[in-house]
Specification:
single chain; 226 residues; mainly alpha; Leucine-rich Repeat Variant; 2 domains; 13 helices; 0% strand; DNA_alkylation; DNA alkylation repair enzyme; ARM-type_fold
Length: 226
């Protein structure tokens, strides 16, 4: 019998026990969402996941997929956070096949707290490992879903010297006209991170495309370049 469901129930029960109504209300207000929270902060959530791992082993990709998606579909926001914790922890299952799991999560994510981690920590490494997945980023940057467009930028966030500069440049210039705060911020953020690898490129890029980039994007991009 699969131990996935008992593992999910165990974590849900522990989260409910550890929850705090005032903390839940504050977390919900901060994220400006109607989705309920248990009111469990990250250290306690991580501890609950450690407890769950201590008595339950995930030994197959199918179990991994079920565990991640079962948690992701949970009623409370922290269950989505747990789903991302689980997805990132079991490195052996973060294969090409896992992209479909992460894409499903991303397509139903509703704010930066989940979108950003999925894009940079889960999607990003797979794009490096399987370059054909860059085609997905190309599709996302033109999607009606603003969060997918943001993800098409943030998937590059941690690529450092392995960044596909041509693709990133094309994506930034395609999205630079948008007035949406979360797109402008993502453009600046990904440029700021890449500046740690190639500061001269970012300086020249911002100077060359000064009129195309928003003030927010330029400010974020140049934050540590003086």
């Amino acid at each position: 019998m699969s131990l996935v469901i008992p593992m999910v129930i165990f974590m849900q029960q522990r989260m409910a026990e550890a929850g705090n109504a005032d903390t839940a209300k504050a977390m919900q207000a901060y994220m400006k969402t109607d989705q309920p929270f248990y009111g469990v902060k990250m250290p306690a959530r991580k501890a609950i996941f450690r407890q769950a791992r201590a008595h339950t082993k995930i030994t197959s990709f199918v179990e991994y997929q079920r565990l991640v998606l079962w948690l992701w579909s949970g009623e409370n926001r922290e269950e989505q956070y747990l789903a991302m914790d689980v997805a990132e922890y079991y490195k052996a299952f973060r294969t090409r096949e896992a992209f479909e799991i992460y894409a499903e999560m991303l397509s139903t994510a509703t704010h930066w707290d989940t979108v950003d981690k999925i894009a940079s920590n889960l999607i990003g490494p797979l794009v490096l490992a399987y370059p054909e997945l860059e085609a997905e980023l190309v599709a996302w940057r033109e999607d009606d879903n603003m969060w997918l467009r943001r993800a098409s930028l943030l998937a590059h966030l941690k690529h450092k010297s392995q960044t596909n500069v041509v693709l990133l440049t094309e994506t930034i210039l395609l999205l630079a006209h948008e007035s949406e705060f979360f797109i402008q911020k993502a453009i600046g953020w990904v440029l700021r991170e890449y500046a740690k690898t190639d500061p001269d490129y970012v300086r020249v890029f911002v100077a060359t495309h000064e009129k195309a980039l928003s003030a927010l994007s330029k400010r974020e991009a140049m934050k540590h370049l003086g």
